[in-house]
Structure formats: C-alpha cells, structure tokens
Design goal:
The structure is a single chain. The chain starts with 25 loop residues before the first strand and ends with a strand. Strands 5, 6, 7, 10, 11, 12, 13, 14, 15, 16, 17 and 20 form a 12-stranded mixed sheet that branches. Strands 22, 24, 28, 29, 30, 32 and 33 form a 7-stranded mixed sheet that branches. Strands 27, 36, 38, 40, 42 and 43 form a 6-stranded antiparallel sheet that branches. Helix 9 packs parallel to helix 11. The protein is an alpha+beta fold and 1277 residues long. Helices cover 31% and strands 27% of the residues. The chain is built from 29 helices and 54 strands.
Amino acid sequence: MQLCNPSIPPFTLDKPYVDTNILRYYVVLHDPNLTTIEHSTSFFEKLKRTFGLHCYLLTINSKPRNAGDEESIEDRAEENIRQIWENSLRESYHVESELQFFAAPTMDSNVSSLNSPSVGHTRSSSVTSNLSSLPTPILHGNSTPTFPLNLSENTNNATPTEELQQASIQYGRCMTVENVGQIKSMTREFVVQSLVPFMERNIQQWNEQVASARRGLTGRLFGASRRLFGTSTRSSPQSVQNIPAQGPNVPFGLSSMTVYPFAAPEAQMRKLADYAFMLRDYKFAYTIYDTVRRDYATEKAYKYHAGTQEMMGICLLMMEQPLTNKTDVDRHFELAVQQYLSRCRSIFHATRATVIYYELLKDRQMWKDIPTALVRMTGEDSDLRSALFLEQAALCFLRANNKPMVRKYGFHLVMAGQRYGKASQRLHAFRCYEMAISVLDASSWTIAKNHVQFALGRQAFHLARLEDSVTYFSNVLKDSKQTAQQQVAHIREFLFIYKQYAAQAGFDPLKESFPNLGLPAINDRSIQVTLSNAQSNTAHREEWAAMEIELLEESIANGYISSSKRAMAVQQQDDDRIVCAVEGVLIHFKPIKIELTVALESAIIHIELYNPLQISISLSDLMLGCQYKESSKPQDQTVDTDEVMPEGKALEGSDLYEFEHFKLQKLNVVTLDPLEKKTISLAIVPGHEGSLLITGLHYTLNELVHTFKPFIKRGKRLNRSKEEQMSVVYATDHSLDILVTSPMPLLDIAFHHIPETVMSGEVVQTVLEINNKGNKGLTALRMKTSHPSFICVGRPEEMDKNIYSADVSNNTTNTIETDNHLFDPSVISIPLPENGGRGAVKPGETTLVPLWIRCDRIGKHTFKLLFSYQSDEDNAMIAHRTLRYSMQVQVITSLKINAFTRPSTTTINEYILGIEIENLQTMGQFNLAQLTASSPIWTISPLSIDLSDTQDVERKTTIPARQTTFAYYKIRRLDVATGLNSPEAWTSRALGALLNNQSDSKMEILPPIDLHMSKISFRGNDIPTETPPFNTFSLNSRMQWRQSHLETQFPSISKDKYNSLFTLYSSGDVDLTIYWNIPQMNRQGHHYIIGVNLGIQQNPFQGNSAEVINQKSRTMFEATAKERTALVNSLTRNRAIKDESPVKILVSAPDKRAHDFEKEGLLKVPICLSLMNCSWNRTSKYTLELLPWSKTDQKSTNSKAYLNVYPFHWNGSTIYTGTLNPEEKKEIDVFALFQLPGVYDINRWKLTVRTDDKEDSEAFVHQPTLPQLITAIASKE
C-alpha cells in the first residue's frame, strides 16, 4: 500500500533512469486455514473498487490445518509439486557447492573476475547472496533447514558430496494442485489483461509522441543539423546526467557514468524498442533501435550505442524468416563487442553479447559462424574466459552442417587446453588435451601430436596422475623432429617422473616392464631368425623365399624328398619356420684316445635397432623373451607387454644364461648414436625337443627403465579368394616360432679363391669347402643358384684337374649324344664322398669340391646360393634343411664379338660366317685358342685362315689391346636325315596333343639328339669341350637362352609346360664357342654365340589349324576358354614366328665364255637351276618363270646400268612347274642366248612356292637380289 501513499516517495526516485510510470497490480492472498473465503472476498471487492481491475484473489494453503492431528499432516507433497522446486534447487546447490569447494580456497586475481582484479564479484558470491536473502522456510516434522552455501558459517570444510546430501528441504509441503493451478491462472490473467495492454498503450503513446517526430522531415533535418553543426544536448540536464558508478560490473577506475533520464527522448525511444522487442515485433523494434542508434552515436554515448547494436543483431536473429544477409548480423555484434571493449572497457557486457550471439546462432544451427564470434572474445586479459570460448568454438566445428571440421576441432581444443593451463585450471586443461589427442592420433602430424602428449604428461603430473603422466611422456620420447636440447629435456623429465611413479607404486624399475616404450624403434618385419651357420646378410628375403619354394618343388618332383614327407615339407615351407636341433655329443676317434665334444646348435635372432633421436641413448641387459612348448606344432602368439625380466643362471666363460628349457644370450650394453641403425644378434640354444617362440626383447633404457618389446609379425597378404582380394587379410607368421628337433647335420659353407673382379667370359676355378658341424651325417646336398649359367660344380676327384689340358689337335668332327629335354639349370646336385654306399659327410668332417665360375654379363652380380641337405638318419619332424649363402663378383669387359651369316652362292645349304672380335682391354693381348661349333646337322671349317700357315694363324688370331680382328668361316650341312624323328616333328606332335587335350602319359618319349662338335684349333691343342666344366657351361647357357626365347615367342604357355612341349636343340641350331687366353695375365676363358639357326623357320605346330580352331572343348589348358583361345592364336597366328619359304634355289653357270660371234653367230650357254625343299614335312609346289630382258627394268635399276648393253634371250621353255617332297632336290637345265660380247646378268627369274598341305597356305615369291654375271668374250680362231 506504500505505492499509493503520496507522503512516502517511491523507491525509484533515486534512480533517474527508471520511469515512475509503472504498472501496479494488487494480489490478495487467501489462506483457508486462517480465514474464510467470504472475508477474503469482501476485502477483495473493496480493493477492486479502490484500485480498479488490476487485482486478483489468490488462494494458497501455507499452514497445516491442525498441528496436533497426525492425520491432517501431510508427510510429503505430491510428486509434480515437489519437482517444481527440487529440480532447479538441486542443480543450483550442486553448482554452488562445486564453485565454493574448488574456487574459494584458491581465489586469485587472474581467474576471479572477467573484468578487473579489484572487484571481488563472482558467480558464487552473487548466487550465495541471493540465496541468503531468502526467508527461512516453514518446516514441519523431522526436517531441518539447511542451505548448501553459507560463507559466514560452517561450510568451508564441506565437500560437494556433503552439500548434495544437505539438500533435503521439502518446499511446497502444504500446497495443493488447486493452489498451483490458481497461481498459473493469476499469471496468465496478469499478462493478458494487465501487462500486455499496458505495454501496448505505452508503445502507441511513445510512437505517436516521440518516434513519429523523429521519423518526419523535421526530425530528420534536426538530426542532420546536430550531426553536421555539432549541436549537442549534453548541456541539458533532462537529456544526459552523470551519476556515481556502482555495481559489480563497473570497469576498474571508472567513478561516474552517463545515463539518460527516463523523460529524455532517447530513453523513451529505447523503451519503445524494448517493449516492441518483448512483444515480438522484431521488425518494428529493429527500426526503432536503428533510429536511436544514430542519436547515441551523435551524443557519443558509446555504451548505449553498443547496446543498440547488440539488440539490432538480436532482432535480426529472432525474426522467424531466413536471413537475407549474414554479414549484417555479424557486423552488429562485432561493432557492439568492439565498443564494449575499446570505448566502454566493459568486458562483462562484451562477454554477455558474445554469449547471446552464440546461443542465437546455435538455435539456428549456424555452427560454422559461431567460432568467429567466440574467438573474437579471446584475449590476454582473461585466460579462463578465452579457454571457455575456444572450447565451445571447437565443439561447433565438430557439429558443422555439411562435414565435421575435425582438424579445426582439435586445433581449438589445444588452444583451449593451453589457456586453461595458464588459468591454473589443470583438470579442464587435461580434459581438452585428451579430446584433442583423440583427433591427432589418427593423423600424421607428429609435431602437433607430440606437443599435446607433452602437455598431457605435465598436466597429469600436476594432477598427481603419475601413471598417465609416464604414459604420455613415453609417447613423446620418439619424437625425432625436436631439437637435441628438447629431446634431452623430454628424457630427463620422463626418467624423473618414472622414478617417482615406481617409488609410489612400489616396484623395481629394473625388473618390472614398462609397456610401449618407443625407444629404440624396432621394425618387426625386419626381424629374422637364422641358424648359427647362416650369413649375417639378410637382404632380399622375398627372393630367397621364392628360391626355397622352387627348390622344394624340384626336390619333390625328382624324388629327393620321399613321398611320405611331401606334406610335411610343404607345410614346413609354408610356415617358414627355422629348424634347430638340440645339443649332442660328437665322438672323435684318434689313434691314442677318443675325444668327446658337445656340439651346440643355436638360433640367431637378428634385430635392427634405430635411434630416431638426435642424442645418444644407452641400452643395457638385452635379452630375448621366449616361450617353450613340448609340441612341435606352431604356437599362437599372445602379446604381453608386462613381462618381467627373466632371471637365469650365468654360464662361466660365456654370455649365455641357462634356463629350464633353453639358454639365452645377454648383451650388457649397446649404445646407439644419434639417428643410428644397428643390427644386434642374440642367440638362443634349445635344450629340449619341441618349439620355442620368440615373444620379444627385454632391455633397460639409460639404466633406469626396463621394458619388454613384443614382436608382432604378419605373414604374407592373402590374395587367393575374392573375399581376400577385396579386404586386407594377412596370413599367420611362424618365422619366430623355432622348431626344435633331435640331432641333425649342420652345413657350413666356405668358398676359397673367389676373385673380386673377373673378365667377361673368364673361367676361374675356386674351391667349395663343405663342413658338417652337426651331430648326424649329411647327405643329399643340392644347390640352387640365381645365376645358373655362371657356376659349374665338379666332383671331389677333379680338384687338381687342369681343364685346359689338351691333346694334339686333329680338327675333326666328333658326335656326342645329348639329352634334348629342357631342364632346370639352377639346381645342382653336389657330389659327396662315398660313405656307406651313398655320398655323405660324417659329423665333424670336411670335404672339398671344385667349383668353376664363368660370368658373361658385365656388371656387379650377387650370387644367391641356396643349399638343401638331409640327414643320413630318418627324422620324423623335418624333411630337409636349407642354408643361404651369397657372394658378389664384379664383371668387367673383355671381348666384343659380332657375327653374321649369308647364304653361299655356290652350293645350297652352305653359309658364310663372318666373325668380328674387338679387344676392349687397354692392357693385355688376347690369343684365340679354338673355335667350336655344336649342331645337329651343321659343321664349320675355316675360310680366311690357313691353318697350315703358322704366321697367318698368329696374325689373324692375336688381338692386341684396343684392336679388332676379322675372319670368315664356312658352315655346311652334313648328310644327316631329319624327317619324322627330328626335334621339330616331336614338338609339333606335342603341341597337337596339348591342343587336343591329351594327357601327359600318352606323350611319346623324346629321343636324344646327336650333336656334331666341329673344332678349329688355332694353337695346335684340342680343348676338351665335351668334358666338365665346358659342357656344363655350354648346356646351361643354351638352356637359359632357349627359355628366354620361348617366353618371348609363347607368352601364353606356362613355363611348367615347356619341358613337355619343346626341345633344347632344333635341327638347324648352331652354337659357337670361342676360346681365348691372355698369356701375360694367365687368364683363360671363352665366349658363346648361341641361337644361330640356319634352318627353315616355320611354325612349331604343323597340324591342321582349321580343325584346332573349330574344335570346341570345355576343359582345355587350365580349363578356361579364354586361355585356350590365346593358346590357339599363339600357335596358329603367332606374329613372333613368320614362316619362310621351304624351297631354296641356286643358279649355276660359267663365269666367262669365249665365242666367235662373226663365224658361229649366237652364243648358247647352259645354265643349271637347282631347287631343294628344305622342309622336314612340307611338300611344296613351285612355279619357275624365266623372265625376258626389259628396257623398263634397265632404266629403273641404276645399280645395273653397266650390264646388259645388249639383250639376251632364253632358249626353250620359260615356265617350269613341279612338286618337291620334303628334303627333295631337283635340277632344271636351261640355255641362254647372247648376240654380242659383254657382261650379262642372267638372274632373270621368278620362283613362286606354295605348300600343298594347307589350302589357305601363303604363297612365297623368290626373286634374285644379287646379279649372276656371265662375261661373253669375242674370240677369233
């Protein structure tokens, strides 16, 4: 009633900016327990007649009806009524308790206020003051009044849990559902009937009296004059006043503030806009805000101006329509925040504007625009506020509409964590860094990731989370991109924290393992297990594995491994397991006594360590982790990073430690320099049969942190099924699982007299030393080499043999029967001394075998030699053992050889061979010793070298340094029939059987071939080319050339089929071998010219092509129609093989003829044309045309312009036809007539050949390319 008493001034008069024209609303409270409804109604009617309709009678039950009546006391209010208070109060109690517990003891000026350190206002104190001002509630029963916060009483020692337990006050115990409904009805009536009409009346009044005047022409001119001429109303006390600055959000150092009285036009315009905003007329409110904003700008009332800018932005975002221009909204809020910060120095209002802007953008789900507004409010004045806004900006990046911006999310979280750390909010900093590391873990940003890991480690240490701190610091240790000083600091902090963590946890850091230590880096894929006899070089593993598979398949196919062990050998190869034998006792029989020695066979594990840091690190007590199992089956590896350092019994005189089932080697200290890679080798000696699984490596870093690095190796990627091809699936790796068997032989290899550099073609004799260091006899020794044409192995009895020891030369041709099958030259069986009926090397014994090396390709070569051997006693757990050995040889140039052939003009099936040899050496003279030709049907003889003249031979077979020699030889065919027993016939039948899908069992046996060895010795000595190593080198080189040639001609045929389809030699093949020596250097060698084919080139398949093409077969050559089509095309339409004419022609005539043309007239000269069918199976039809002389040909052929001054004529028939059977020869005699003396070219003919075995066969046309000259000389008797 004080509002209506004129003698008492209103409470708003001391605030000039508050309008006294306020809405008065009167509420009469009726308590049914205190009075009757009639009394309250009568009072309400009097009040209504006095003050008008703005009154309401509200019924509230605030007291129990009878305190002594137990039935009338309600123990508990209804659920929906109680939740009205409890939901909000519980949350408020919890928040204030947390603030008091965490913030009150450490109140600091840096984090206590958003504005200035001089004002002690916090949210905790504000809410506490509001709560403490509440009246004490009325309680009944056993309830006791308790408040969650009370800074002046006993709450300083309360914990948040206790504060939650104290929130047991029950509000609204005596209220009913009707009371709550009446309160809602009163509120609704107050708003609808009183408040909204009051606001609408004020809006109409202010709009008509103030706003309309400002919007008119006069108002605009008045405003423009104030802006242009500087007219200001600041001097008027009704317009602007200065009052003392009070309140919690007043900037530091500000004592007074400028306000507009409520009667000022600017204040009324602002209230008009505010009322319109509250009534949701945002467009009208935006217009009024924009109008009054100009006045504030003119008056330089920057705080009011910033407020209107803020409200204009809010109006645009509150409108229920799409934004036409986002820039306008952001510009309003940006200007408001800038003026709050710069002009007004009010951080509180700037923060408020930013939060409102954030909430409105969030309501519209404009996530991409929120971070800009939040980051705008970050600064150095408040780390806590900046951290909060940066964290919220990060979350907005994660909730972007189109695609989450994960990288920006992580980046802003890192910045938020840094600001939280500066504000001493370590828990929040730790939380932000943890969320950021989840983003960076999947990226390759190592520097950013390590920065966050380092920050997490420090925050965890300050939060007393030593285990987490140690984990995070261990992840930073392997950072290789930091400077050396930073890396030293990282390791020092890690060791310091780990020492504290070990002391706190109560364990020994030198025994207990610290998991996942990143130093040093170990590549699990590079770990290799070898036996003690293996070389340390472990490169090219895939090539070695392929060689082992090929050697195993070849040994199984040829019966070196029994069929009963076939499955075991294949499984052993697939598992890639190292086989190690247990220790045994060797018995050495000597003339006087018997000695017993213990043979230890150990497995060596090669581990590559890498130090990624720029500082040195020290590793000590390095030892393998192993698991023993009695079963020989592969073990399933289980990763256990907490394995304790094993303790074994040290063996005297060695670095081995004995355990129950094995012995382990221990390395005391290994130092890794900066960025150094070092391979260490650790030995394990098995003691019992079974299997040993290498699980990992034990070591101690810098003599303080012991760790165990588990080894996890994956097998090859599986690519067999479609499902495996579509996904990434790896096979199980068993290379670290060592199979331990009973005593076995152990091969040790040593090569002697291996030169580092050899000449191309030079033959060097070396010695292969074979040692058996195992406990059983060694047998079935075989070797597979990567360079089969470079190596030849002899027998032990040939150790002192002089391979160039020669007999007196007779330059004859001898015949050698040779197997014509294709073979694998890379696999060599090494002969061993006879022992018990078979070749074997006893335990502890050594044998020597000669080995010759000849390299014919220039460059640096690495010989990969894979040895396979077995035990002389049967072992049920293993089929064979292997040993890898490699060596390097540099091959330099020696001779350069060029050769060519051309048909002879005197005889059919005779060729002229020209060989040009250049000495590429700058020092040393080459002497040619012998030329050997090996061929089924061809032989060679010298043409330009007189073997009977020693000086001529010396002159033409001696090649000084950087000089060249040239010589001609004649190759002629021997009188040897080929026919249906030729290699070509066998190949054709084999290809036909393949195309007809016949089984290999029905294939006919390939007969051996007779090679004719023609030798031309230049020095009087006959080099035995048919004995080792020359015959081996020759066959291996021939095989290598033949295989590469077949791969080029028939790419669609599998290599596995070559042996059953093709032969090593064809009938027309000629291989030439040139032997040489350098007397000054005592070097000898030879070069090959392989692949000279002087026969008729034709398709290997000579069957009926039409039948093969039209044949339909479901299962054919790997059972696919596509592959069958490719095979048929490669045999019938092979572009790499072009058929030649099977018929050869030779024109024989005298070179000159004397004739008396005046007396005898025409000169008649007989000419013989010889035709021969050189095919082994084709019958050919020919047509021979004798062509007349033509002037056109005379003019068009410049090279023959000096010939045929006068024409000549053929006498008799000029066309001859006939048929030639295979290898049939026919002669045709014709006559040429000459009128005048001169030089005539009688090569005027044309031969057309067709083969009659094919209807669509190609027609071959022969025409002369060289002239056949006859000189007619005029003579007189």
